[in-house]
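Annotated sample (chain length 282).
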Amino acid sequence: MLNKVTPAVYYLSNDDSKERPTLGLVCGDKFSLVIDSGNSVQHAQDFLKEIEALNVPPVKYLVVTHGHWDHILGLNEFGATIIVNSLTNQILEEWQNYSFDDVSLHKYVESNKMSSKCVEIIKNEIPLRDSFKLNSADIIFEKSLTIDLGNKLCVLDTIKGTHSDDSTIVYVPGDKVLFLGDSAYGTTTNSLFHYKQSHLLPMIEEIQKYDATSFILGHESLCDVQEMNLYWKELISTSKATDSTSIDRAIECFEKENNRTPNSNEEFFLKAFVNDQIIRSQ
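Output written by the structure step:
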């Protein structure tokens, strides 16, 4: 069942047990726009069944928030105009060269091109894998793009997130809803989970330019302004306390600056920023 944010904006909840991210739907008077395609053919088809039950205008556009597998592997199912930024398109073109038979998938896991979880989902939820190939993007944009769905605008903006450099966020100004994809999450490099510290403040500044009251992240339920502001506050304070590869130093700096010990979220962020310092020092 789709979650209704406003009469024009919906989302399908994430399912962490299946590595399924949140998928979005924006409906205008003439057309509808989908945000992210899901992690498999099955995920996309499940989403399409929910959309069909709403009796909304036809899906004409599909926007990909970034080029990670769980957001792109369902894109063939929608019969829509595929929209990506130029950086995401480079990643999509790499995936178009992949083969999905068992032997190839095994090689991709061995070379760290795919995770074992990704391969498990592909095997279970993508039929006819031997002939499977991702469709190409139809519209490739650079910094920003505005789509008119008929009395309903969607503003697409490319930002450098703490998760990936190719993040696209989608703002629906008439509803004050902002789809963030995975832009505000961390990522894993060399087996270390980290937040890209140098991207944090510019990213937050870009996101806060938008007059949004509802925020939808790639693996979360709906967040309001208060919840997002708390998230930003915790990220900023922990980043500010981290200037070395020492977690002890980071905690000491945090406690000195805030006159308290970090909570569990802040401990997690401190470790992630320390990991980022480690990666940058290598």
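Annotation: The chain has a mean pLDDT of 97.
Annotation: The chain is about 35% helix and 25% strand.
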